[in-house]
Write a structure and sequence with these properties.
The complex is a heterodimer of chains A (121) and B (144). With 121 residues, chain A is α+β, with helices and mostly antiparallel strands. Helix content of chain A is 17%, strand content 26%. Chain A has a six-stranded antiparallel β-sheet. The radius of gyration of chain A is 14 Å and the shape is globular. In chain B, helix 1 runs antiparallel to helix 2. Chain B is globular. Chain B has three helices and nine strands; from the N terminus they run ββββααβββββα. In chain B, strand 7 and strand 8 form a beta hairpin. Chain B has a five-stranded antiparallel β-sheet. The chains are: A alpha+beta (121), B alpha+beta (144). Chains A and B meet through helix 3 of A and strand 5, strand 6 and strand 9 of B.
Amino acid sequence: MKSVDILDSDFILRRVPTYLPNYIKPDGTISSRAYQKKRDEDGVSVDLEKLSSFAKATLGDKRFRLLKLNAGVIRHDINDGLNTVHNPLPENDAHSLIIGHITESKQKQLLKNSVEVITSF
Amino acid sequence: MNTSVDNITFNISDNTIPTTSTTYGVEADLSPINASHVYSIYSYSNLQENWDSYGAKKPNNSAIIKAINFIITELNARGYEVFYTAPTADGDILVELNHKNDNLEFIFSREVEDKVIGSCDGNFHAEEALNETTLHSYLKWLKQ
């Protein structure tokens, strides 16, 4: 699939595991590990909302919760070189990456600027 | 009140050092909460690759051993109760404390230096390599 531009008005989606292991803490808050970039990764994998759906982004698995974050906020508010780029995969045309130096501080900012998508299957 | 948990007996092989293993036995005198977190961390050794659906690595046994040792010898011994634990996408282990709106995250790794991260109301405060000095200063900060 051809790459599409991700506009500042677009949103990206990120799954959060809620079973073993559970990224929901005992007080109901979500661990910022949800946005951790692996050391050997180019970026944090997300889905571009306009090419995805709740069911697609959660893999149809009720054990995942879903976070939603605005691309413009990543670029201009969280900033410091962070960006979101479309990175389609054969099995997921919505696949995108949050790229840049994702520090502990940036992980927490990504989480703070996210909202949970509540949609029933 | 601490409860003796004489049924905690783990034998975790450290794959990086094939001849060694760590066994936790009756010497562990853990609070019930800390004991439950030790069990949770031990259970992470059963996770498979890609447990988060994004290609997460299987939790590393060296990191698991370090995290359990840390809870037993540093936190439990000082009277702290663990708030939360989880594996990370890199196969490291997170041990977290909280007090009011402040949190301390301890990350144990096989590949990189262990570290401690302080946050307040979910906002990043500071981060350093974990050693005796930083452990003492961050625990002091948490209680302020």
